[in-house]
Amino acid sequence: METKQFKAESKRLLDMMIHSIYTHKEIFLRELISNASDAIDKLYFKSLTDDKVGLNKDDFAIWISADKDSRTLKITDNGIGMTEEELENNLGTIANSGSFKFKNENKLEEDNQIIGQFGVGFYSAFMVAKKVTVISKAYGSDKAYQWESEGVDGYTITEADKKSAGTEIILEMLDDTDDENYGEFLDQYRIKSLVSKYSDYIRFPIKMEVSHSRPKEQTEEEKEAKKPLEYEDYIEIETLNSMVPLWKKNKNELKEEDYKHFYTEKFFDYNEPLKYSHISNEMPSYNALLYIPSKAPFDYYSKEYEKGLQLYSNGVLIMDKCADLLPDYFSFVKGLVDSEDLSLNISREMLQHDRQLKVIAKSIEKTISNELKKMLKNEREKYEEFWKAFGLQLKYGVYSDFGMNKEKLQDLLLFTSSNEQKLVTLDEYVTAMREDQKYIYYATGESAARIEQLPQTELVKDNGFEILYLTDNIDEFALKSLMKYKDKEFKSVSADDLGLDTPEKKEELKAKEEESADLLKELQESLNGKVTKVALSQRLKSHPVCLTSEGEISLEMEKVLNSMPT
Ligand code: ADP
Ligand code: MG
């Protein structure tokens, strides 16, 4: 049987490519710069073994220039260039990636920085341009060629003039419409910000002639006469990218200032971070910079807050907030991850949800957890500051997902203690317990001050036992999820049985209760069903009466549950 080849309606295919792969038009610049960087990488790679290239690493650069009058944007590189045949194959064939081939042929495993792989990025230029011209001269060839296309209708290739090896890409921008402004991509500020957003860590300099204006020098007489300043324009060549990613630098070269500066710039936070950590991980291989903010962002505890880390692949930004990299209980962490071996989706805006990402996420979670434990141990004050900002989130973490993560989080929790209202960990509480103490006691209320006044706390305190003061709604739910800590159960001070009475005392109380049965019954009836039972108690000292709860649910928890929508 003959196997037939699929045919493709290439015009339709190209149209689909152009209009459906990318969600943001602005990424065309990232794609063209990435291609230029790949082309330079290839020639640089050659230059390592071929003296005839005659270029040093510092000679390589990518140039951008914009001309508003002719509405053209030019991206030039002095990389490897393309022969006529390569123009045909690489730009005339959808989904053909010369870069992918190059990587395979040259077995670039170590230090592989080449970005291209899908063979579609180039066409993103047609999202913003009505006409694309590519003038290219391949390294080692003495002829240059010009490839030209207005999109779906095809392309032409003709001979052209170009002195040195490399490629020049000229976009004639689409006309502006009511909805779309393509002219903005010719604006120098817009270009600068796009480069720093997506291509800041391309390893070769991206240069542009930037025009500035400055006051003209005045003569002494003019100054004397207070003549108004006149301004003049001048042009300066600027390198728009910072090239070396901070996270790929050697830790020894970096100062605390560098990390802090990077954070405030990148994450738009005026406050210095409380803590940072720089990770270079092998297996899975990634670099990361992680930060804990010193204050919760204003929308942190709202639905608007979006968690996530920036995700880079080889120094090119892929996603601004990759949520899959952080568990909810660590959603306050800011930072970025750069990995060379991610399986990117074709648009490079998303990832294939693959094992690799999960492995990285796991490793990051572990790092955060270890950092927090270290901080708790060595920098208590700082940790308490952290706790005030984000403790609530950790308590939610204990309670949510059916308590799946409680083991991971229980040692990070702090509670206010009846002991001078200091913050204590569960471990500290249990370590300080007397041998005859059966339970971890807690009391719930609006504030520590209110709880101190509760009659129910008196007896426990008189026994010399510490009490945890729970003042957030979530607190008791979190403890209930934990159930136990180091084999000690939690006990509300308003629980029926506090475990303080000896069997003799219990007998004594029972006898008294029988004696006063009539009185108790009368009291209960007069309360008209507002309480389930009226009983005698030995827990009271300076108060005549108090409320207690039977069973597992405390009074405060009942209040929370009653206030929830049903
Ligand atoms: P990819 O970069 O994923 O391979 P593109 O559609 O962006 O796909 O580019 C297709 C191919 O065209 C590249 O693989 C490369 O071989 C070639 N190419 C594109 N731009 C340039 C350039 N500036 N210099 C040399 N070759 C280029
Ligand atoms: Mg590309």
Automatic annotation (TrEMBL):
Gene Ontology CC: cytoplasm
Principal place of residence: cytoplasm
Gene3D superfamilies reported for this sequence: 3.30.230.80, 3.40.50.11260, Heat shock protein 90, C-terminal domain (1.20.120.790), Histidine kinase-like ATPase, C-terminal domain (3.30.565.10)
SMART domains the UniProt entry points to: HATPase_c
Database matches in InterPro entries: HATPase_C_sf, HATPase_dom, Heat_shock_protein_90_CS, HSP90_C, Hsp90_fam, Hsp90_N, Ribosomal_Su5_D2-typ_SF
Compartments reported by the entry: Cytoplasm
Classification via PROSITE patterns: HSP90
Residue positions binding ATP: 31, 35, 77, 82, 90, 97-98, 117-122, 167, 348
GO molecular function: ATP binding; ATP hydrolysis activity; ATP-dependent protein folding chaperone; unfolded protein binding
Keyword S-adenosyl-L-methionine: no
Pfam (any one): HSP90
Keywords on record: ATP-binding, Chaperone, Cytoplasm, Nucleotide-binding, Stress response
Region spans: A: 1-348
SUPFAM superfamilies, A to Z: ATPase domain of HSP90 chaperone/DNA topoisomerase II/histidine kinase, HSP90 C-terminal domain, Ribosomal protein S5 domain 2-like
Ranges of residues in domain Histidine kinase/HSP90-like ATPase: 24-177
Family that this chain belongs to: Belongs to the heat shock protein 90 family.
Alphabetical list of HAMAP family matching this protein: HSP90 (MF_00505)
Subunit structure, as described in the record: Homodimer.
Task performed by this protein: Molecular chaperone. Has ATPase activity.
Protein name, UniProt field: Chaperone protein HtpG
Annotated gene: htpG
